[in-house]
Amino acid sequence: MLKDIIEAKPLEGYELYLKFEDEVHGVINITEIIEFTGIFAPLSDPAYFATVTVNPDLGTICWDNGADIDPVVLYAKVCQVNLEEYFEAKNQPHGSEHYKPSLCRKPSPAN
C-alpha cells in the first residue's frame, strides 16, 4: 500500500526529513536518489532545493518546476531497503515465512 508523505523539511547538504502517514520518518540524502539533470537540475541550487513542499494530492514531495519523486522510492530509502526487497516482501502472502508485515517499523514512543 502506498504511504503518503505528510511532512518534509529541507536540511543541510541536500538532506530531507520526511514523515509518512503511518508515522514512519527519517532523513534521506536526495543525491542518492536523483541526479541534478533535466527537471531536477534546479535542485542543485540549495536555495531552490529548500523550497520543497508536500503535495497532498500526490502524497509526495515536489518543487515549483514540477519535479517530484515517487513516494515509494522515498519510503524504501527511509526504511533503508532497496526497491526489489521492498516489492518482494510486499508481494509475499501473509502465511509465507518470508512475509514481513512492516519493512520499516514506526519509532517506539518515548518513555
Automatic annotation (TrEMBL):
Q: Which SUPFAM superfamilies match?
A: NE0471 N-terminal domain-like
Q: Which stretches of sequence are listed as region Disordered?
A: 92-111
Q: Which Gene3D superfamilies match?
A: NE0471-like N-terminal domain
Give a Pfam family name: DUF2442
What InterPro entries does the annotation carry?
DUF2442, NE0471-like_N
Which spans are transmembrane here? none
The identity of this protein, by name, is Molybdopterin-guanine dinucleotide biosynthesis protein A
State the organism's lineage.
Bacteria, Bacillati, Cyanobacteriota, Cyanophyceae, Oscillatoriophycideae
